[in-house]
Amino acid sequence: MVEKQMSLEFLEKVYCVAPCLRLVMDGEEHSGKHLYNFFQFEIEWRTSSMSDVFKQGEKILTSMAKEILEDSTGFVE
């Protein structure tokens, strides 16, 4: 995303959770194998190693998953 790259000029760390829509190709609409709407999670750090970014991403995704599971008690088994 252009906005995320531009933000890195002023901020050292940028996080983004955004809805994504994928175009449907011929024959895919009934296959059941493709997600067309999903959320994308991105981390951009200007000066950190890839390992540091992965560790932080794992912490954030784990926290988000715990929140979702707690909020969906009775819906998820």
From TrEMBL:
<dbReference type="Pfam" id="PF00152">
    <property type="entry name" value="tRNA-synt_2"/>
</dbReference>
<feature type="domain" description="Aminoacyl-tRNA synthetase class II (D/K/N)">
    <location>
        <begin position="11"/>
        <end position="71"/>
    </location>
</feature>
<dbReference type="GO" id="GO:0005524">
    <property type="term" value="F:ATP binding"/>
</dbReference>
<dbReference type="InterPro" id="IPR004364">
    <property type="entry name" value="Aa-tRNA-synt_II"/>
</dbReference>
<protein>
    <recommendedName>
        <fullName>Aminoacyl-tRNA synthetase class II (D/K/N) domain-containing protein</fullName>
    </recommendedName>
</protein>
<keyword id="KW-0067">ATP-binding</keyword>
<keyword id="KW-0436">Ligase</keyword>
<dbReference type="InterPro" id="IPR045864">
    <property type="entry name" value="aa-tRNA-synth_II/BPL/LPL"/>
</dbReference>
<dbReference type="GO" id="GO:0004812">
    <property type="term" value="F:aminoacyl-tRNA ligase activity"/>
</dbReference>
<dbReference type="GO" id="GO:0006418">
    <property type="term" value="P:tRNA aminoacylation for protein translation"/>
</dbReference>
<keyword id="KW-0547">Nucleotide-binding</keyword>
